[in-house]
Amino acid sequence: KQKKKSGCGVHQCQDCNKTFKSKHNLKLHQRIHTGERPHSCDECGAAFNTLITLQVHQRIHTGEKPYNCEECGAVFALSDTLKKHLRVHTGEKPYVCDECGKQFTESGSLRGHQRLHTGEKPYSCDLCDKTFAYLGALKTHRRSHTGEKPYWCDKCNKTFTQRSSLNLHRRVHTGERPFWCETCGETFVWQNSLKEHQLSHTGYPCSRCGDVFPDRSLLYNHNLGHRWRDKQVKRAMQKKAEAGNQQPV
User: Fold this and answer.
1) Of 29, 30, 27, 62, whose CA–CA distance to 43 is shortest?
2) Which of 43, 9, 40 is nearest to 25 (CA)?
């Protein structure tokens, strides 16, 4: 369906009223409505509505990556992918969360983040019905059922369910210790190890009363006192309740 608006040389789509300067562009546009995809890939059979879209797709098979980053030399198959990558260097984060103001480099990252505010968890596990906000989180979770560990260390052959766990493990082999104590300069492989170490400078606080101890064992003994007193209070309340129940009518 197409018609030419009288007197202005503009071609209009009768399905959505969008206008085009040429009949050819209108014809290409109308494939969105008709579903026509006349251009197909000889390698995999995928079909596309325009020739240029097919040519871009074929880079998956040829490995062609004509767009390169002048900052770091990284190459990309699509110009849009290069534009997104450049934000790593420029620091540009054009997508902003209306709820908390957090900024993102990609619209998809913003949509995923917004689920923290809405509570939406559209991805569910068909084995245990647990739900997730992100598809990646679901895929990782499913490995707890299947036992799959697709990430392996090329140094010791240890396997992991997540790439991030593998990256952390590799520090054992590389000797990398990225976490350091500002008080004494000691370095650590793991952030949790640094946090534990820092308590040796600040002391070990009791979550019940706020008292601080220079040693973990002293804090442990102190907490035993809290637990003993809790038991004494509970016993006293039970005895009082039992005595009340035994009063003569």
Assistant:
1) 62
2) 9
Decide if 166 is inside a domain: no
Structure tokens at 164: 């991030």
CB of 27 closer than 8 Å to CB of 55: no
How many domains does the chain divide into? 3
Judge if 112 and 141 occupy the same domain.
yes
Residue 116, domain extent: 67-146
> Residue 46 has what DSSP assignment?
-
Q: With respect to residue 245, please indicate whether it lies within any of the assigned structural domains.
A: no
9 backbone φψ class: left, alpha, beta (φ>0; ψ -120 to 50): left
Local mean pLDDT, 10-residue blocks, the chain (249 residues): 53 90 90 90 91 90 92 91 91 94 92 94 92 92 93 94 91 92 90 88 87 86 91 88 72
Pull the structure tokens for residue 161.
């369910």
Burial per residue of 160-175, b for 16 or more beta-carbon CB atoms within 10 angstroms, e otherwise: bbeeeebeebeeeeee
pTM: 0.46
Q: Are residues 53 and 105 in the same domain?
A: no
* Burial (Cβ within 10 Å: 0-12, 13-18, ≥19) of residue 11: buried
Instruction: Give the tokens for residue 11.
Output: 């071609």
